[in-house]
Amino acid sequence: MASDPNALRSRRALLTAAAGGAAAVAASAALPLTTLAADGDNLVIGATDNAGASETTLTQATDAEVALRVLNDTQGAAALIGGAGDQTNVAEDTSFTGIYGFTPTSADANFSSTAIWGDSEDVGIVATGGQAGVIGFGPSGVVGLGDIGGAGVEAWGATPTDVALTVHGKVMFSRSGKSTLGAGKSALKVSLAGVTSSSRVFAVLHSNRSGRYVRAVVPTTGSFTIYLNTTVTSATYIAWFIIN
């Protein structure tokens, strides 16, 4: 005789079913968490490799809510690592790092590879710190590129009495140099692109010539002329420096 599907189940049967359901929930909780990626594959939390054939996008539509938060409860490794291209030289130690970005040297001579790129119509990257906002290492630790009349690097003091720029060590300026004034002459014209009549040019003798000194420096478009108080009897070095 077929069993009645509506028949009352025994207490033991109910407890057994409940235990089985609880075990299933516990087992599913122990598995890696997943979220559906754009290409239909699952993004597995805890997996060492999640491969996808297309872009995965996370969209958060509520105002003032974070779209994606990545946290690391320890300081032994970065909370988030982003890499592009060959990963051979990626750092093995990213301790005490919030976000680490890596990319190898660009194969295109017209472009430089960029580990982290901040782009905005206002401020691309804002950095603050108790010791330093930005620290740069390498042949050129920090590089600023001026464009469309703007400054490559601009330093501000919080108030008119605060220091905007402090330099420890040597400073090199491309708009400075040393030129030679020939014997029997009292004036020297130096051509340099970007010089205007508003440029501030300073000059000083770099050779010991008794009774001789720089009387004036007059800038004009593309050049400036250094005038001494009188002629020199032998070739004389003159050092110069342009502020703007």
Describe this structure in words.
By secondary structure, the chain is mainly beta. Among the domains are: 68-105, no CATH class; 176-242. 8% of the residues lie in helices and 20% in strands. The protein is built from 1 helix and 10 strands. The chain has one helix at 11-30, and strands spanning 34-36, 42-44, 80-83, 99-102, 176-181, 187-191, 201-205, 214-220, 223-228, 236-242. The strands form 4 sheets. Strands 5-10-7 form a 3-stranded antiparallel sheet, with no helix packed on it. A 3-stranded antiparallel sheet has the order 6-9-8, with no helix packed on it. Strand 1 and strand 2 form a beta hairpin.
How many whole angstroms does the radius of gyration measure? Answer: 34 Å
Count of distinct strands? 10
> Main sheet, how many strands, which sense, barrel?
3 strands, antiparallel
Helix content: under 10%
**How confident is the prediction overall: mean pLDDT?**
82
Q: What is the N-to-C succession of helices and strands?
A: HEEEEEEEEEE
| Low-pLDDT stretches | 1-31
What is the terminal-to-terminal distance?
A: 103 Å
General form = elongated
The largest sheet has its strands arranged as: 5-10-7
Structural class: mainly beta
Quickly count the helices: 1
Strand content: 15-25%
Ordered list of secondary-structure elements with their pairings:
Elements: H1 11-30, E1 34-36, E2 42-44, E3 80-83, E4 99-102, E5 176-181, E6 187-191, E7 201-205, E8 214-220, E9 223-228, E10 236-242
Parallel strand pairs: 3-4
Antiparallel strand pairs: 1-2, 5-10, 6-9, 7-10, 8-9
